[in-house]
Design brief:
Helix content: 55-70%
Oligomer: single chain
Length: 110
Amino acid sequence: MNYLISGLCIFFIFFISYQIFLAHFKITEGHSNHKNQHFRRYNITSKNYSNPVKLSQQNAGNVMALTSVIHHLTGKVKTLNKQVTQLVQAQVQSGQDMAGSKPHKITGVT
């Protein structure tokens, strides 16, 4: 029983320490790809933050930038899907070459 209580205490101490460790680092939300120069972060300390027209223009630009990133990733997924399909077909062909197309005749089974 003491082992269970000690284990739970150690677990919770570790868990709380981990949460404090995570809280120490600043969490940045949003797109953080430095290659994409069109995406602009929102500056909440500027005067433009209270101007809805400026914010909507910046938001539209960011949506267009993120859309281009999604289209780029979609192309990568299509290429990967094609490669996986070719790999599966090669495995099927290899299996048929090893086993043959006819079922083996098994003897000695009642």
